[in-house]
């Protein structure tokens, strides 16, 4: 390298690219694995939907019981 020149070397560039590839691989595996972020979000959505349906059924049965008592 000539005196006074500044810049990055090819080795530095290759090391940086390798580190970025490793980080991308880890991020992808954390996102898409069986226990990943997306699968956990789908499971949480299903649990929430089931809980909502259950709560609605319970509210409907209570409403029915209240209406039956009020009719008597």
Task: Characterize the structure shown.
With 72 residues, the chain is mainly alpha-helical. The chain has a domain at 35-72. It contains two helices and no strands. The protein has helices at residues 10-32, 37-71.
Short description:
With 72 residues, this protein is mainly α. It has two helices and no strands. The chain has a domain at 35-72.
Helix vs. strand class: mainly alpha
Strand content: under 5%
Percent helix among the residues?
Answer: over 70%
The tally of beta strands, per DSSP, is 0
In N-to-C order, the SSE pattern is HH
**Count of individual helical segments:** 2
Dominant shape: rod-shaped
- Unreliable runs, pLDDT <50, ≥5 residues? none
The description of the largest β-sheet is: none
Report how far apart the termini are: 98 Å
Whole-number mean pLDDT = 90
Radius of gyration from CA coordinates: 29 Å
Provide keyphrases for this structure.
81% helix, mainly alpha, 0% strand, 72 residues
What's the topology here?
Blueprint: H1 10-32, H2 37-71
């Amino acid at each position: 390298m000539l005196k006074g020149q500044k810049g990055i070397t090819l080795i530095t560039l290759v090391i940086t690219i390798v580190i970025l590839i490793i980080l991308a691989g880890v991020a992808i595996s954390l996102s898409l694995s069986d226990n990943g972020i997306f699968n956990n979000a789908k499971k949480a959505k299903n649990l929430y939907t089931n809980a909502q349906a259950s709560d609605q059924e319970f509210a409907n049965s209570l409403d029915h019981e209240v209406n039956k008592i009020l009719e008597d």
